[in-house]
Design brief:
little secondary structure
């Protein structure tokens, strides 16, 4: 009995959908892991969970929807990078450069961002619940509708940041600089 083309497609579609999504360019992933230098690389949807990316050069890299959960990205340069909808839950991002980065809808729950530079970053709708942002530079960052509940923002620089509709319940803002911040008290 010959199978019809429709029957074959119906059998193959579920198999195709079950295949894990990888970055578009496996050469870029290998380059990053081998050299820790991959500016402007396409690492979208890459699974980099738990990887050691300390001091990596990822300027202007495309990391949207990448999985960086529990990765060590300390001292890395991600300025201008696209991390929209990326999973950075519990990632170590101490002293990382995320200037002008796109972190819209990123999951940074319980992430460590001690002294991180997020100046001018787009963090709209990001989840920073219970994140450590002690001494972080969030000047001129867009934090509209960002979840900062329980976040440690002690000594953080929030000058000129947009905090409209941000969730700030139980956030620690002791000694934070909120001068010129819009909607500084969130909801």
């Amino acid at each position: 009995m010959n199978a019809s083309p429709i029957a074959i497609v119906n059998l193959l579609v579920p198999v195709w959908l079950a295949v894990p999504v990888l970055a578009q360019n496996s050469d870029d992933i290998n380059r990053l892991l081998d050299t820790k230098a991959c500016p402007r690389c396409d690492l979208s949807r890459a699974n980099l969970e738990g990887e050691d990316l300390r001091e990596a050069d990822l300027r202007f890299a495309d990391l949207h929807r990448a999985n960086l959960k529990r990765s060590s990205i300390r001292y890395a340069n991600l300025s201008g990078a696209d991390l929209e909808s990326a999973n950075l839950k519990q990632a170590e991002l101490d002293e990382v450069n995320l200037r002008e980065a796109n972190l819209r809808e990123a999951n940074l729950k319980e992430a460590f961002l001690y002294a991180a530079d997020l100046s001018g970053a787009d963090l709209r709708n990001a989840n920073l619940q219970d994140a450590t942002l002690f001494r972080a530079n969030l000047s001129n960052a867009d934090l509209r509708q960002t979840d900062l509940r329980g976040a440690n923002l002690r000594h953080a620089n929030l000058r000129g940041a947009n905090l409209c509709d941000a969730k700030l319940e139980d956030a620690d803002l002791k000694y934070a600089d909120l001068r010129d911040a819009a909607c500084a008290w969130g909801r």
